[in-house]
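Quick review question:
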């Protein structure tokens, strides 16, 4: 289920410009971030990643899952009440994802004092594009030599250990972290949603992506292959206008469970 808490910002922020040519400019979308436009101290909670299937035993299915991932970005108001939330991101901008330990006392004691590994991926939301993901990513690589789809902003991140980005997997990054310590990773998405539209004549809305997070613990051989938890959320990514950075949507805080 999902419910939303709306902060006092104008609803017209996103309505006027989504059908314009995002490749050219986003100057008509969003509103400029001025002083005091958004105070983190006013935020009670932030968008929580949709929980995916877990490998935990069936008797734990109705319990609180061991981890939560919170994307610190505004969700779009232009979605129906019971539909999944959609978050708009600026291309190349760093966005914080907070890694939260939700375990109760005595839960998963085998990871106490140990590290876990989380793998981040940007994937297609639409099933049609999922079937051709390899070809789509290879085409993107050909058109953008030397670029990556997903990066970690290491200087801004907190608590991550041994961050890695495989040069052969442009849409994937990974790192180790200690659930007992504060961990926030800042990610940058460099592809834009309109790059994968079939017809490019201007005015495309762009295809949605998903940020997928999978977390693993060590096995007896010291390899991080035992699945603990997965979650994801839906995003769209657009070019930043030549003016100041814009914040897409109004600040609606959505809680998913």
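Suggested answer, residue by residue:
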């Amino acid at each position: 289920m999902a419910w939303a808490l709306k902060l006092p910002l104008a609803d017209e922020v996103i309505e006027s410009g989504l059908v314009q040519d995002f490749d050219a400019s986003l100057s008509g979308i969003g509103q400029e971030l001025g002083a005091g436009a958004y105070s983190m101290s006013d935020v009670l909670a932030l968008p929580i990643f949709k929980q995916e299937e877990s490998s935990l035993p069936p008797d734990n299915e109705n319990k609180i899952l061991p981890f939560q991932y919170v994307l610190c970005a505004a969700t779009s108001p232009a979605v129906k009440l019971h539909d999944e939330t959609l978050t708009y991101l600026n291309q190349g901008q760093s966005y914080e994802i907070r890694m939260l330990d939700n375990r109760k006392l005595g839960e998963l004691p085998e990871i106490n004092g140990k590290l876990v590994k989380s793998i981040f991926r940007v994937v297609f939301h639409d099933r049609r594009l999922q079937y051709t993901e390899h070809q789509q990513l290879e085409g993107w690589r050909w058109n953008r030599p030397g670029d990556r789809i997903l990066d970690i902003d290491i200087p801004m991140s907190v608590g991550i250990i041994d961050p890695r980005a495989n040069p052969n997997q442009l849409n994937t990054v990974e790192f180790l972290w200690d659930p007992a310590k504060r961990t926030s990773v800042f990610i940058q998405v460099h592809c834009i949603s309109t790059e994968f539209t079939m017809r490019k004549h201007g005015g495309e809305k762009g295809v949605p992506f998903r940020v997928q997070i999978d977390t693993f613990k060590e096995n007896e051989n010291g390899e991080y292959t035992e699945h603990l938890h997965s979650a994801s959320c839906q995003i769209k990514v657009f070019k930043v206008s030549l003016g100041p950075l814009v914040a897409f949507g109004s600040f609606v805080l959505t809680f998913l469970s």
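Why it works: The domain at 2-31+73-102+113-256 is CATH 2.60.40 (Immunoglobulin-like). Residues 16 and 29 are 7 Å apart (CA to CA).
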